Amino acid sequence: MTLPDYEYLRKFLKDQSGLDLSADKQYLIESRLLPLARKSGLPGISELVQKMRSGSSLFINQVVEAMTTNETFFFRDKLPFDHFRESIMPEMLRARASRKSIRIWCAAGSTGQEPYSLAMCLKEMGASLSGFRVEILATDLSQEVIEKSKAGIYSQFEVQRGLPIQMLVKYFKQTGELWQLNADIRGMVQHRQLNLLHDFTGLGKFDIIFCRNVLIYFDQETKVNIFNRLAKVIEPDGFLVLGAAETVVGLTDVFKPFPERRGLYRPNAFSAAPGRMSALGAGAMKSAAVAGL
Amino acid sequence: MRTCLVVDDSTVVRKIARRILEEMEFQVVEAEDGEKALEACKSAMPEAVLLDWNMPNMDGYEFLGNLRRMPGGDVPKVVFCTTENDIDHISRALAAGANEYIMKPFDKEIISAKFAEVGLIQVTSPETV
Q: Which of A51, A199, B37, B113 has the most crowded Cβ, counting Cβ within 10 A?
């Protein structure tokens, strides 16, 4: 890629999307835009830049999309999904042994990688879930993003970030350059458009809430407000999972950190019922033992 | 320092891979085909192999079979890195003992994600652009 092309793309992306690329990200641009250029029948990036310079809005949109849809990927950060498999689900399966249903909410479901990662985790748990009804609700602010999530279709680039190859082979079907999640996995996730700033009590109560990497965009007051409202829709013995750079500490006491599990929180109301607490506390210790800790 | 053997008939690909892997603190050994790669493994077994599929003399698939039959050949984590991006090739590679599979083109994020997947490096929060 020539330097003028690179500088053009850098400035263009900064203006269009706020994406701030440093001077040494040529490889990133090449890896994202070369497939796009080829797919459009162009020999390379400089031809793509020519199209953009001539104002082709089709290319402009596709370039922004290709460069910015890296905000989420399958099994992002890994750790929350270890928590899900090793702590959250074992405890929930015990706690809901009679109700036999578990409700999970991905409050920033984005293009689907997080809710579908959870769905694949559940699928892998197999027989231990038999008889249980597990619901995953994915919400997002953007209808466009939700449509993409519903389709469950991902680029070669997207399926290579965080998704073990065995899972790709097992749960996806290939169509040309694209990979679509199998219908049974897609069918495990419900979608709904939702702005977290608005009332969400209509969604009902949840046992597990994933609310990752969305609160970072809000100011303190809004964060506190959302935490308080999340506390109202989570079961007293439920689990809240936040992003790696997020915490409730210093903001609110409606949730408290779960010991030894970074990013995992429980409603503070949970400790208000001492009898239940000790029973579940023992359960948590047992599940920690199962997890080899 | 751990060693990664980069097997690819393209000098450009080997150079890009070397740069990425050295940043990840691997010592890099290069081989231009499966035969040379086997020789490299005989003299010193690497911890990791980044492996192209289509190469002259001996392709990546054949190399993998030979490697897995060598004494100590079960140790290296083998990550395919190839333009063969259909499910049949991927399934064959996994059945032959590949640990992970990268569909070209690749970048540093993909290599780190895949190396983390097979335990070659620690999982870090991926870099944001």
A: B37
Q: Residue A242's domain is classified under what CATH number?
A: 3.40.50.150
Give chain B positions within 8 Å (CB) of A20. 129
**Of A68, A99, A121, at which residue does a domain stop?**
A68
CA A24 to chain centroid: 28
Instruction: Please report residues of B whose CB lies closer than 8 A to that of A19.
Output: 129
- The pTM of this model reads 0.77
The answer to whether the Cβ–Cβ distance between A162 and B100 falls below 8 Å is: no
Three-state DSSP state, A84: helix
Is A120:A171 a contact under the CB 8 Å cutoff? yes
Helix, strand, coil share of chain B (percent; to 5): 40, 20, 40
Tell me the Cα Rg of chain A: 21
Closest CA–CA distance from residue B128 to any residue of chain A (Å): 8
A61 and A83, same domain (yes or no): no
The verdict on A215 and A251 lying in the same domain is yes
Q: Which two tokens stand for residue A37?
A: 């250029």
* Cβ contact B123–A161 (<8 Å): no
Query: A21 CA to chain B: closest CA distance, Å?
Result: 6
Q: Which of B51, B92, B109 to mutate: most A Cβ within 10 Å?
A: B109
Q: Do A165 and B94 touch (CB under 8 A)?
A: yes
Q: Give me the tens of pLDDT residue by residue for chain B, a chain 129 residues long.
A: 899 999 999 999 999 999 999 999 999 999 999 999 999 999 999 999 999 999 999 999 999 999 999 999 999 999 999 999 999 999 999 999 999 999 999 999 899 999 999 999 986 544 333
Q: Distance between CA A30 and CA A25 in Å, rounded?
A: 9
A61 and A87 belong to one structural domain: no
Structural domains in chain B plus CATH codes: 2-117 (3.40.50.2300)
DSSP A194-238: --TTS--GGG--EEEEEE-SSGGGS-HHHHHHHHHHHHHHEEEEE
Domain that includes residue A190, residue range: 79-290
First CA to last CA distance, chain A: 50
| B79: closest chain A residue by CA | A165
Question: What CATH number did the domain enclosing A15 receive?
Answer: 1.10.155
Q: What is the pLDDT of residues A162-183, one digit of tens each?
A: 899 999 999 999 998 899 999 9
